[in-house]
Amino acid sequence: MQDLHVSCSLGPFCFSFGFGFHSWHLCLSSMRIFNMLQVPPYERPALSKGFLLPEAPARLPSFHTCVGANEERLTLKWYKEHGIELVLNTRVKSADVRRKTLITAMGETISYKILIIATGARALKLEEFGVEGSNAENVCYLRDLNDATRLVEVMQSRMGGNAVVIGGGYIGMECAASLVINGLKVTMVFPEAHCMARLFTPKIAEFYESYYEAKGVRFVKGNVLTSFENDSEGKVKGVILKDGTRLPADLVVVGIGIRPNTELFGGQLTLEKGGIKVNARMQTPSNASVYAIGDVATFPVKLFGSNRRLEHVDSARRSSRHAVSAILSPDKTGEFDYLPFFYSRVFALSWQFYGDNVGEVVHFGDFAGGRFGAYWVDNGRLVGSFYEGGNREEYAAIAEATRVRPEVVDLDELGRLGLEFAFRFARKDLEDPLPPPEVVVPVTASQGGDTSSSIVVAGRPVYGWHASAGVLVAASIAGLAYWYGWRRRRW
């Protein structure tokens, strides 16, 4: 095994990204892992999907790390079998990248040769926007296992009641679907003109909003929460909006974004676009011994020709693999060439997006039938693709077309061709094919229902190939530092 000292800061947060270890765990024998969690690392996508289902909900150990990528379930038994001592409920409270040391909350000093920062991000709180009272018993966030468990408890105690969802992004849309399936009356509140404003066009958003409304969801757009109305026990019974509107609320779910966890490295590393700036090897230019991956990393995206910080499991998985490869096999590892990818599944809907949503947009397909898409064309080239209701081959086709960035001469023709245009660029012999968009991983009832990225479809779990193994890389990388630091002190 290479004489490699790797560590990761485990701040007081849960991590927001994941990746498949593949063969990397072969390098991680005879070590200790320390982890701020009270359970072994798990996959985050389950929390806003299968975990919230009223029937056969996902529960640990069914979504421990790597399951969603059809890999091994990393339970306590797995760590033991691989010679890894998993030490839970431990975190790093400070880091000194110049001296290459970390200090845990217990006061232990850990030395490293290479540091991989995998601290992810934390949920934004209402208090950061001047709204007090989100510590009420029936106000919930959704970022970690404790949040999800609390949300389920509150939701089950208020069946048939009124739920208000603050935010119209991923968390808001996915939680709203689950709340409806659990029998609550749901109102979504967000300041934008339509849902998923960072990605959806007005035409695309209209489709999803109409679908949600048919399920009973009410939308209040262009408005924000300003205060809560509480009962005598301090529980929220209503929310007050900026325009004075009062909405009855037995449950409030807040999903207003995340903030990267960079505090441990403030003033030590270069920050850009909210994250830690790295090069195409995921290495920080300000310190060659430090790498950053996942939600906390701002890295070069060739397709965009600029640095971006991407908040999604796929980016985290691939950037993690690339960083490890760059460390262990620097001569065989080139620049990170990533095709941005986002997806979601709610109710009976399923969409995927690749690339960037800039330039002119061209819609195509059957919106009434729920099989439609959009292309984005910038400077005469295709830079982004979206499709709802596709199959594996169709998603792979739009992904490859976006990767190729073909020239587009006639926008009207592009709209007429629709998926046919993408299939012109699909290849069967990709050296690095995209993961399949859907993989079903069977799980027995005794394992607690579905796996990591199960989704809500007509009240039943459906499994997706993506799963956020967020804490695994943080815990495992940190374990290297712990073990090596312990070994060096012994020596």
What does this structure look like?
The protein is an alpha/beta fold. The chain has helices at residues 76-81, 145-156, 170-181, 202-214, 313-328, 392-404, 411-417, 419-423, 470-490, and strands at residues 6-7, 31-34, 84-87, 92-96, 101-104, 109-111, 114-117, 121-123, 139-140, 162-166, 185-190, 218-221, 225-230, 236-241, 246-248, 251-254, 258-260, 271-272, 275-277, 290-292, 297-301, 306-308, 341-346, 349-355, 360-366, 371-378, 381-388, 454-457, 460-463. The strands form nine sheets. The chain has a five-stranded parallel sheet, with helices on one face. Strands 23-24-27-26-25 form a five-stranded antiparallel sheet. A hairpin with a 4-residue loop joins strand 21 and strand 22. The longest helix is centred in the last third of the chain and has 21 residues, at 470-490. The protein starts with 5 loop residues before the first strand and ends with a helix.
How are the secondary structure elements laid out?
Layout: E1 6-7, E2 31-34, H1 76-81, E3 84-87, E4 92-96, E5 101-104, E6 109-111, E7 114-117, E8 121-123, E9 139-140, H2 145-156, E10 162-166, H3 170-181, E11 185-190, H4 202-214, E12 218-221, E13 225-230, E14 236-241, E15 246-248, E16 251-254, E17 258-260, E18 271-272, E19 275-277, E20 290-292, E21 297-301, E22 306-308, H5 313-328, E23 341-346, E24 349-355, E25 360-366, E26 371-378, E27 381-388, H6 392-404, H7 411-417, H8 419-423, E28 454-457, E29 460-463, H9 470-490
Parallel strand pairs: 1-7, 2-3, 7-20, 9-16, 10-11, 10-16, 11-12, 19-21
Antiparallel strand pairs: 4-5, 5-6, 8-17, 13-14, 14-15, 18-19, 21-22, 23-24, 24-27, 25-26, 26-27, 28-29
